[in-house]
């Protein structure tokens, strides 16, 4: 696959088998990028970059995530960087668009800093505003949202993201206080699916959709939030969900509109998200893929920053000089490499478990076919290679 999306329909290649750990360690680079604005309580974003056969890819689960959760991020990285291109491959995914409309992201800054932050997002007419920040009040949120509305005017769109920071009563009260600012939707106002369902019921007569983020990407069953009537739309992120294909399957099964977003990725990770957005059959909302503007430094000379309110769908060329300039400290480099090794072992374990389950299914199917006098085997263990994506 070329680094640029060609004119006309393009495609993503099918996933390849899990690469050896030694191969991954040999092509790994760990960076520590300063942020332009404090976000999620951090001032520096660390990421492990991998140069795969197809191109650069990113493994950057946040430090507090355990290995089981982080391994799914590694599956996404391998899916994006180690996929094989096969001529006539039936698993190729069509990329339906070559540019992705993106929103600006407003951290939980004071209202007097809103204009400064928005200036980094060229042409963006949708703003996601962080609210319910620990240590702040609803009055802080109202002031921030008011400043955003004043800056973008009545035609701009505002969505709020509480990251599960409110209980039901707090969320209902906040919705009433913030509704005059004409909100597009409210993202993850409460932490649990039952809370979201109750809040959605209370806001039934309001034209304020509820979007689920953490209840999708951190759940064993990412569709439960929709099945329980707790969300009007889902937020999907390629890395936390195990890759582009895994996220596409979740969107298809959810059956509700989807918003593609990111996890404060470098431009390499944002490229993965852009490919996800490009592959969706429908893209009704601006995507949260403009967050390169939150970084004070990146790993490429041509970062995926918003231009005219959108970013291109392309792979990113990593600049060796920038990677060297922002290389993580030796102890952090070692920490990330050890984490990579543990997550690789977790993916191997999942692959073995999946292979064993598949073998059992094949044996059962064969026995049933033999019993019916049809000895043909519909499948074999060889049809279930150990994938980087596994069945996470």
From TrEMBL:
UniProt-annotated binding residues for Mg(2+): 161, 187, 213
Protein name: o-succinylbenzoate synthase
Reactions it catalyzes: (1R,6R)-6-hydroxy-2-succinyl-cyclohexa-2,4-diene-1-carboxylate = 2-succinylbenzoate + H2O
Organism: Schumannella luteola
Cofactors named for this entry: a divalent metal cation
SUPFAM superfamilies associated with the record: Enolase C-terminal domain-like (SSF51604)
Active site (UniProt): 130 (proton donor), 237 (proton acceptor)
Protein's gene: menC
Keywords: Lyase, Magnesium, Menaquinone biosynthesis, Metal-binding
């Amino acid at each position: 696959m070329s680094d640029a999306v060609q004119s006309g329909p393009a495609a993503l290649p099918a996933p390849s088998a899990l690469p050896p750990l030694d191969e991954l360690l040999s092509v790994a680079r760990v960076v520590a990028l300063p942020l332009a604005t404090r976000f999620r309580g951090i001032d520096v974003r660390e990421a492990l970059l991998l140069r795969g056969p197809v191109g650069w890819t990113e493994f950057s689960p946040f430090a507090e995530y355990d290995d089981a959760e982080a391994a799914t991020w590694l599956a996404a990285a391998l899916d994006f960087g180690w996929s094989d291109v096969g001529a006539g491959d039936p698993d190729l995914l069509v990329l339906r668009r070559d540019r992705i409309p993106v929103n600006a992201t407003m951290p939980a800054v004071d209202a007097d800093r809103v204009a400064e932050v928005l200036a980094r997002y060229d042409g963006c007419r949708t703003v996601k505003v962080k609210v319910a920040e620990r240590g702040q009040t609803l009055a802080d949120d109202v002031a921030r949202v008011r400043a955003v509305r004043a800056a973008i005017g009545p035609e701009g769109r505002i969505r709020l993201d509480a990251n599960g920071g409110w209980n039901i009563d707090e969320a209902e009260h906040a919705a009433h206080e913030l509704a005059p600012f004409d909100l597009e939707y409210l993202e993850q106002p409460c932490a649990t699916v039952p809370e979201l369902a109750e809040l959605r019921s209370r806001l039934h007569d309001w034209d304020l959709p509820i979007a689920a983020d953490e209840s999708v990407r951190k759940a064993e069953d990412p569709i439960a939030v929709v099945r329980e009537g707790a969300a009007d739309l889902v937020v999907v992120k390629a890395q936390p969900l195990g890759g582009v294909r895994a996220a596409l399957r979740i969107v298809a099964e959810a059956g509700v509109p989807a918003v593609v977003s990111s996890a404060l990725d470098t431009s390499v990770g944002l490229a993965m998200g852009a490919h996800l957005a490009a592959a969706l059959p429908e893209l009704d909302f601006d995507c949260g893929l403009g967050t390169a503007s939150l970084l004070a430094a990146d790993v490429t000379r041509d970062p995926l920053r918003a231009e005219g309110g959108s970013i291109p769908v392309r792979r990113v060329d990593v600049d060796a000089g920038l990677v060297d300039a922002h290389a993580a400290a030796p102890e952090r480099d070692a920490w990330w490499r050890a984490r990579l090794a543990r997550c690789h072992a977790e993916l191997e374990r999942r692959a073995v478990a999946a292979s064993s389950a598949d073998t059992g299914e094949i044996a059962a199917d064969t026995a049933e076919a033999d019993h019916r006098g049809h000895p043909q085997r519909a499948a074999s263990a060889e049809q279930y290679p150990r994938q980087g994506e596994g069945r996470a």
